Amino acid sequence: MNENQDQFDVVIVGGGPAGLNAALVLGRARKHVLVIDNQKPRNWVTRETHGFLTRDGVSPQQFREYAAEDIKAYPSVQFTSDTVIKMNGKDGAFIVKTAEDKAYYARKILFAVGKRDQPLHIDGLSEVYGKSAFVCPYCDGWELQDQKLVMIMSAEKALYMAKLIAGWTKNYVLCTNGDVTLPEEQMLELSRHGVQVYEAPIHSILSQEGMVRAVELEDGTLISCTGIFFQPKLQAGSEVPMGLGCEVTDSGTIVVDAQGKTSVPGVFSAGDAASELYQAITAASLGSLTAVSINNELNFEAWDSGTK
Ligand SMILES: Cc1cc2nc3c(=O)[nH]c(=O)nc-3n(C[C@H](O)[C@H](O)[C@H](O)COP(=O)(O)OP(=O)(O)OC[C@H]3O[C@@H](n4cnc5c(N)ncnc54)[C@H](O)[C@@H]3O)c2cc1C
Protein backbone atom coordinates (compact mmCIF):
# COMPACT_ATOMS: atom_id res chain seq x y z
CA MET A 1 0.00 0.00 0.00
CA ASN A 2 1.27 3.46 -0.72
CA GLU A 3 0.67 6.35 1.63
CA ASN A 4 -2.32 7.62 -0.38
CA GLN A 5 -4.16 4.35 0.03
CA ASP A 6 -3.51 4.51 3.77
CA GLN A 7 -4.87 8.05 4.06
CA PHE A 8 -8.46 8.37 5.31
CA ASP A 9 -10.82 11.17 6.26
CA VAL A 10 -11.94 9.09 9.23
CA VAL A 11 -10.62 5.97 10.87
CA ILE A 12 -13.32 4.25 12.91
CA VAL A 13 -12.02 1.89 15.57
CA GLY A 14 -14.73 -0.69 16.29
CA GLY A 15 -17.22 -2.33 13.95
CA GLY A 16 -20.22 -2.82 16.23
CA PRO A 17 -23.58 -1.02 15.83
CA ALA A 18 -22.03 2.38 16.69
CA GLY A 19 -19.05 2.15 14.33
CA LEU A 20 -21.10 0.61 11.53
CA ASN A 21 -23.86 3.19 11.62
CA ALA A 22 -21.22 5.92 11.65
CA ALA A 23 -19.56 4.29 8.63
CA LEU A 24 -22.90 4.24 6.79
CA VAL A 25 -23.55 7.94 7.42
CA LEU A 26 -19.97 8.94 6.52
CA GLY A 27 -20.02 6.76 3.40
CA ARG A 28 -23.20 8.48 2.26
CA ALA A 29 -21.42 11.80 2.92
CA ARG A 30 -18.72 10.63 0.47
CA LYS A 31 -15.98 10.42 3.09
CA HIS A 32 -13.05 8.06 2.77
CA VAL A 33 -13.43 5.83 5.81
CA LEU A 34 -11.61 2.84 7.28
CA VAL A 35 -13.32 0.66 9.89
CA ILE A 36 -10.81 -1.35 11.92
CA ASP A 37 -12.34 -4.07 14.07
CA ASN A 38 -10.96 -7.06 15.95
CA GLN A 39 -14.32 -8.82 16.43
CA LYS A 40 -14.36 -9.17 20.19
CA PRO A 41 -17.59 -7.44 21.22
CA ARG A 42 -19.20 -8.16 24.61
CA ASN A 43 -22.42 -9.42 23.10
CA TRP A 44 -20.92 -12.31 21.13
CA VAL A 45 -21.69 -14.59 24.08
CA THR A 46 -25.35 -14.25 23.14
CA ARG A 47 -27.30 -15.82 20.29
CA GLU A 48 -29.82 -13.06 19.66
CA THR A 49 -30.03 -9.28 19.72
CA HIS A 50 -33.47 -8.00 20.71
CA GLY A 51 -35.24 -4.67 20.53
CA PHE A 52 -33.63 -3.34 17.33
CA LEU A 53 -36.50 -2.44 15.01
CA THR A 54 -36.43 -4.51 11.76
CA ARG A 55 -33.66 -6.75 13.25
CA ASP A 56 -35.32 -8.09 16.41
CA GLY A 57 -33.82 -11.48 17.26
CA VAL A 58 -30.92 -11.65 14.79
CA SER A 59 -27.56 -12.86 16.08
CA PRO A 60 -24.90 -10.20 16.71
CA GLN A 61 -22.86 -11.68 13.84
CA GLN A 62 -25.85 -11.59 11.46
CA PHE A 63 -26.48 -8.00 12.46
CA ARG A 64 -22.96 -7.10 11.31
CA GLU A 65 -23.45 -9.00 8.05
CA TYR A 66 -26.64 -7.05 7.28
CA ALA A 67 -24.81 -3.81 8.11
CA ALA A 68 -21.87 -4.71 5.84
CA GLU A 69 -24.36 -5.42 3.04
CA ASP A 70 -25.91 -1.94 3.45
CA ILE A 71 -22.51 -0.22 3.59
CA LYS A 72 -21.26 -2.04 0.47
CA ALA A 73 -23.28 0.48 -1.56
CA TYR A 74 -20.77 3.17 -0.51
CA PRO A 75 -17.34 2.19 -1.88
CA SER A 76 -15.43 4.91 -0.02
CA VAL A 77 -15.85 2.81 3.14
CA GLN A 78 -13.28 0.07 3.70
CA PHE A 79 -13.01 -2.58 6.39
CA THR A 80 -10.06 -4.36 7.91
CA SER A 81 -9.86 -6.99 10.60
CA ASP A 82 -7.05 -5.91 12.91
CA THR A 83 -6.42 -4.43 16.37
CA VAL A 84 -5.48 -0.80 16.84
CA ILE A 85 -2.67 -0.75 19.38
CA LYS A 86 -1.47 2.84 19.30
CA MET A 87 -2.32 6.25 17.97
CA ASN A 88 -0.60 9.58 17.88
CA GLY A 89 -0.71 12.82 15.97
CA LYS A 90 -3.17 15.68 16.14
CA ASP A 91 -6.40 16.96 14.62
CA GLY A 92 -6.11 16.62 10.85
CA ALA A 93 -3.11 14.26 10.99
CA PHE A 94 -3.45 11.16 13.14
CA ILE A 95 -1.33 8.03 12.75
CA VAL A 96 -3.02 4.75 13.60
CA LYS A 97 -0.84 1.71 14.32
CA THR A 98 -2.17 -1.82 14.37
CA ALA A 99 -1.18 -5.23 15.72
CA GLU A 100 -0.49 -6.37 12.16
CA ASP A 101 2.12 -3.65 11.88
CA LYS A 102 0.08 -1.43 9.57
CA ALA A 103 0.00 2.35 9.77
CA TYR A 104 -2.97 4.40 8.61
CA TYR A 105 -3.35 8.17 8.43
CA ALA A 106 -6.58 9.93 9.34
CA ARG A 107 -7.91 13.44 9.66
CA LYS A 108 -10.46 12.45 12.30
CA ILE A 109 -10.80 9.49 14.64
CA LEU A 110 -13.93 7.79 15.94
CA PHE A 111 -13.57 5.39 18.85
CA ALA A 112 -16.54 2.99 18.78
CA VAL A 113 -14.68 0.41 20.84
CA GLY A 114 -17.53 -0.60 23.16
CA LYS A 115 -16.83 -1.87 26.66
CA ARG A 116 -15.44 -5.16 27.95
CA ASP A 117 -16.60 -7.41 30.77
CA GLN A 118 -14.10 -7.82 33.56
CA PRO A 119 -13.47 -11.52 34.28
CA LEU A 120 -16.48 -13.26 35.81
CA HIS A 121 -15.62 -14.44 39.30
CA ILE A 122 -18.53 -16.82 39.92
CA ASP A 123 -17.79 -20.46 39.23
CA GLY A 124 -20.06 -21.73 36.44
CA LEU A 125 -21.26 -18.29 35.26
CA SER A 126 -19.30 -18.25 32.01
CA GLU A 127 -21.02 -21.52 30.97
CA VAL A 128 -24.47 -19.90 31.14
CA TYR A 129 -23.67 -16.28 30.19
CA GLY A 130 -25.62 -15.33 27.08
CA LYS A 131 -27.61 -18.59 27.10
CA SER A 132 -29.66 -18.43 30.30
CA ALA A 133 -27.84 -15.72 32.28
CA PHE A 134 -28.17 -12.18 31.00
CA VAL A 135 -27.37 -8.64 31.97
CA CYS A 136 -30.32 -6.53 30.82
CA PRO A 137 -34.06 -7.23 31.14
CA TYR A 138 -34.81 -4.97 28.17
CA CYS A 139 -32.57 -7.20 26.03
CA ASP A 140 -33.58 -10.64 27.31
CA GLY A 141 -36.42 -10.23 29.84
CA TRP A 142 -39.06 -11.29 27.32
CA GLU A 143 -37.35 -14.66 26.83
CA LEU A 144 -37.24 -15.25 30.61
CA GLN A 145 -40.75 -14.00 31.39
CA ASP A 146 -42.62 -15.80 34.19
CA GLN A 147 -39.62 -18.04 34.86
CA LYS A 148 -38.00 -18.62 38.23
CA LEU A 149 -35.03 -16.24 38.25
CA VAL A 150 -32.12 -15.46 40.49
CA MET A 151 -31.05 -11.82 40.41
CA ILE A 152 -27.37 -11.55 41.35
CA MET A 153 -27.06 -7.91 42.32
CA SER A 154 -24.90 -5.74 44.52
CA ALA A 155 -26.68 -4.40 47.59
CA GLU A 156 -26.68 -0.98 45.90
CA LYS A 157 -28.65 -2.21 42.85
CA ALA A 158 -30.78 -4.89 44.52
CA LEU A 159 -33.95 -2.89 45.21
CA TYR A 160 -33.85 -1.10 41.85
CA MET A 161 -33.52 -4.37 39.92
CA ALA A 162 -36.16 -6.07 42.09
CA LYS A 163 -38.65 -3.37 41.11
CA LEU A 164 -37.65 -3.53 37.45
CA ILE A 165 -37.70 -7.30 36.92
CA ALA A 166 -41.15 -7.57 38.51
CA GLY A 167 -42.51 -6.42 35.13
CA TRP A 168 -41.28 -9.70 33.56
CA THR A 169 -41.72 -12.23 36.35
CA LYS A 170 -43.03 -12.33 39.91
CA ASN A 171 -41.03 -15.46 40.62
CA TYR A 172 -37.54 -14.33 41.57
CA VAL A 173 -35.12 -14.04 44.47
CA LEU A 174 -32.17 -11.72 45.06
CA CYS A 175 -28.61 -12.86 45.78
CA THR A 176 -26.15 -10.20 46.88
CA ASN A 177 -23.25 -12.68 46.71
CA GLY A 178 -21.75 -11.63 50.02
CA ASP A 179 -22.14 -7.92 49.36
CA VAL A 180 -22.81 -5.70 52.39
CA THR A 181 -26.16 -6.05 54.11
CA LEU A 182 -29.03 -4.12 52.54
CA PRO A 183 -30.38 -1.21 54.57
CA GLU A 184 -33.22 -2.33 56.85
CA GLU A 185 -35.90 -0.23 55.14
CA GLN A 186 -35.00 -1.85 51.78
CA MET A 187 -35.15 -5.32 53.34
CA LEU A 188 -38.60 -4.46 54.70
CA GLU A 189 -39.76 -3.16 51.33
CA LEU A 190 -38.52 -6.31 49.57
CA SER A 191 -40.13 -8.50 52.19
CA ARG A 192 -43.45 -6.62 51.81
CA HIS A 193 -43.29 -7.49 48.11
CA GLY A 194 -42.48 -11.12 48.88
CA VAL A 195 -38.91 -10.98 47.53
CA GLN A 196 -36.51 -13.30 49.30
CA VAL A 197 -32.94 -12.02 49.74
CA TYR A 198 -29.89 -14.27 50.11
CA GLU A 199 -26.74 -12.54 51.29
CA ALA A 200 -24.33 -15.51 51.50
CA PRO A 201 -21.58 -15.64 48.86
CA ILE A 202 -22.27 -17.80 45.82
CA HIS A 203 -20.32 -21.03 45.62
CA SER A 204 -21.22 -21.95 42.02
CA ILE A 205 -23.84 -22.05 39.31
CA LEU A 206 -25.08 -25.47 38.28
CA SER A 207 -26.14 -25.89 34.67
CA GLN A 208 -26.62 -28.27 31.80
CA GLU A 209 -25.68 -27.33 28.23
CA GLY A 210 -25.77 -23.64 29.06
CA MET A 211 -29.11 -23.77 30.84
CA VAL A 212 -28.90 -22.82 34.50
CA ARG A 213 -30.48 -25.27 36.94
CA ALA A 214 -29.56 -23.83 40.34
CA VAL A 215 -27.40 -21.37 42.23
CA GLU A 216 -25.48 -22.91 45.11
CA LEU A 217 -24.47 -20.66 48.00
CA GLU A 218 -21.44 -21.15 50.22
CA ASP A 219 -23.71 -21.87 53.20
CA GLY A 220 -25.04 -24.90 51.29
CA THR A 221 -28.37 -23.36 50.18
CA LEU A 222 -29.42 -24.53 46.73
CA ILE A 223 -31.74 -22.16 44.83
CA SER A 224 -33.29 -23.79 41.80
CA CYS A 225 -33.98 -21.49 38.86
CA THR A 226 -34.09 -21.40 35.06
CA GLY A 227 -32.54 -18.00 34.50
CA ILE A 228 -30.24 -15.39 35.97
CA PHE A 229 -29.73 -11.67 35.62
CA PHE A 230 -26.44 -10.32 36.93
CA GLN A 231 -24.29 -7.19 36.75
CA PRO A 232 -20.92 -7.73 35.14
CA LYS A 233 -18.24 -5.20 36.00
CA LEU A 234 -17.27 -3.29 32.87
CA GLN A 235 -14.09 -1.67 31.70
CA ALA A 236 -13.07 0.42 28.69
CA GLY A 237 -13.17 -1.48 25.41
CA SER A 238 -9.64 -0.33 24.56
CA GLU A 239 -6.78 1.51 26.23
CA VAL A 240 -5.92 3.37 23.00
CA PRO A 241 -8.23 6.38 23.63
CA MET A 242 -6.55 6.98 27.00
CA GLY A 243 -3.15 6.70 25.33
CA LEU A 244 -4.17 9.47 22.97
CA GLY A 245 -5.20 11.65 25.92
CA CYS A 246 -8.99 11.19 25.92
CA GLU A 247 -10.61 11.83 29.27
CA VAL A 248 -12.26 8.70 30.64
CA THR A 249 -14.45 8.20 33.75
CA ASP A 250 -13.61 5.74 36.54
CA SER A 251 -16.03 3.27 34.97
CA GLY A 252 -14.14 3.36 31.66
CA THR A 253 -16.58 5.59 29.76
CA ILE A 254 -14.97 8.05 27.34
CA VAL A 255 -16.14 11.58 28.17
CA VAL A 256 -17.87 13.22 25.19
CA ASP A 257 -20.06 16.26 24.58
CA ALA A 258 -23.49 16.16 22.93
CA GLN A 259 -21.81 15.87 19.49
CA GLY A 260 -19.62 12.94 20.49
CA LYS A 261 -16.45 15.05 20.73
CA THR A 262 -13.89 13.82 23.25
CA SER A 263 -11.47 16.02 25.19
CA VAL A 264 -8.96 15.67 22.30
CA PRO A 265 -9.63 17.83 19.18
CA GLY A 266 -10.48 15.73 16.13
CA VAL A 267 -11.22 12.63 18.22
CA PHE A 268 -14.79 11.42 18.69
CA SER A 269 -16.41 8.51 20.47
CA ALA A 270 -19.82 6.84 20.28
CA GLY A 271 -21.80 3.83 21.44
CA ASP A 272 -21.12 1.83 24.60
CA ALA A 273 -17.60 3.29 24.69
CA ALA A 274 -18.97 6.75 25.44
CA SER A 275 -22.28 6.01 27.18
CA GLU A 276 -23.79 3.74 29.82
CA LEU A 277 -27.01 2.97 27.98
CA TYR A 278 -25.99 -0.45 26.58
CA GLN A 279 -28.56 -1.00 23.84
CA ALA A 280 -27.59 -1.79 20.27
CA ILE A 281 -30.05 0.68 18.76
CA THR A 282 -28.85 3.42 21.10
CA ALA A 283 -25.24 2.69 20.17
CA ALA A 284 -26.17 2.83 16.48
CA SER A 285 -28.01 6.09 17.02
CA LEU A 286 -25.03 7.64 18.82
CA GLY A 287 -22.80 6.42 15.99
CA SER A 288 -25.05 8.16 13.48
CA LEU A 289 -25.21 11.39 15.48
CA THR A 290 -21.44 11.47 15.94
CA ALA A 291 -20.81 10.75 12.25
CA VAL A 292 -22.86 13.84 11.42
CA SER A 293 -20.74 16.00 13.69
CA ILE A 294 -17.51 14.53 12.26
CA ASN A 295 -18.70 15.17 8.72
CA ASN A 296 -19.82 18.71 9.55
CA GLU A 297 -16.42 19.42 11.04
CA LEU A 298 -14.63 18.05 7.95
CA ASN A 299 -16.82 19.99 5.54
CA PHE A 300 -16.56 23.26 7.47
CA GLU A 301 -12.78 22.91 7.80
CA ALA A 302 -12.50 22.30 4.06
CA TRP A 303 -14.63 25.38 3.40
CA ASP A 304 -12.51 27.54 5.74
CA SER A 305 -9.26 26.36 4.18
CA GLY A 306 -10.59 27.02 0.70
CA THR A 307 -10.38 23.37 -0.39
CA LYS A 308 -14.11 22.79 -0.75
C1 LIG B 1 -24.87 -10.62 26.75
C2 LIG B 1 -25.33 -9.36 26.09
C3 LIG B 1 -26.54 -9.35 25.43
C4 LIG B 1 -26.98 -8.18 24.85
N1 LIG B 1 -28.19 -8.21 24.23
C5 LIG B 1 -28.66 -7.09 23.66
C6 LIG B 1 -29.93 -7.09 23.04
O1 LIG B 1 -30.61 -8.11 22.98
N2 LIG B 1 -30.37 -5.92 22.52
C7 LIG B 1 -29.63 -4.76 22.58
O2 LIG B 1 -30.09 -3.73 22.09
N3 LIG B 1 -28.43 -4.74 23.16
C8 LIG B 1 -27.92 -5.87 23.70
N4 LIG B 1 -26.71 -5.85 24.31
C9 LIG B 1 -25.93 -4.60 24.32
C10 LIG B 1 -25.32 -4.36 22.93
O3 LIG B 1 -24.63 -5.51 22.53
C11 LIG B 1 -24.36 -3.17 22.98
O4 LIG B 1 -25.03 -2.05 23.51
C12 LIG B 1 -23.84 -2.84 21.57
O5 LIG B 1 -23.21 -3.95 20.97
C13 LIG B 1 -22.85 -1.69 21.66
O6 LIG B 1 -22.39 -1.40 20.37
P1 LIG B 1 -21.01 -0.66 20.14
O7 LIG B 1 -20.84 -0.56 18.68
O8 LIG B 1 -20.92 0.54 20.97
O9 LIG B 1 -19.90 -1.68 20.76
P2 LIG B 1 -19.61 -3.20 20.44
O10 LIG B 1 -20.77 -3.86 19.79
O11 LIG B 1 -19.12 -3.76 21.72
O12 LIG B 1 -18.44 -3.16 19.37
C14 LIG B 1 -17.17 -2.65 19.70
C15 LIG B 1 -16.17 -3.27 18.73
O13 LIG B 1 -14.90 -2.62 18.87
C16 LIG B 1 -13.90 -3.61 18.73
N5 LIG B 1 -12.65 -3.07 19.32
C17 LIG B 1 -12.41 -2.67 20.57
N6 LIG B 1 -11.15 -2.23 20.71
C18 LIG B 1 -10.57 -2.37 19.49
C19 LIG B 1 -9.25 -2.08 18.98
N7 LIG B 1 -8.32 -1.55 19.76
N8 LIG B 1 -9.00 -2.36 17.69
C20 LIG B 1 -9.95 -2.88 16.88
N9 LIG B 1 -11.21 -3.17 17.31
C21 LIG B 1 -11.51 -2.90 18.59
C22 LIG B 1 -14.49 -4.80 19.50
O14 LIG B 1 -13.87 -6.02 19.16
C23 LIG B 1 -15.92 -4.74 19.01
O15 LIG B 1 -16.10 -5.50 17.82
C24 LIG B 1 -26.21 -7.01 24.90
C25 LIG B 1 -24.97 -7.02 25.55
C26 LIG B 1 -24.53 -8.19 26.14
C27 LIG B 1 -23.21 -8.19 26.83
TrEMBL record:
Q: Any idea where the FAD/NAD(P)-binding domain is?
A: 8-284
Keyword tags: Flavoprotein, Oxidoreductase
The protein's assembly and partners? Homodimer.
Mention one GO molecular function: oxidoreductase activity
Record has Flavoprotein as a keyword? yes
Cofactor(s) needed by this chain: FAD
* The name this protein goes by in its record: NAD(P)/FAD-dependent oxidoreductase
Q: Which PANTHER family match?
A: THIOREDOXIN REDUCTASE 1-RELATED-RELATED
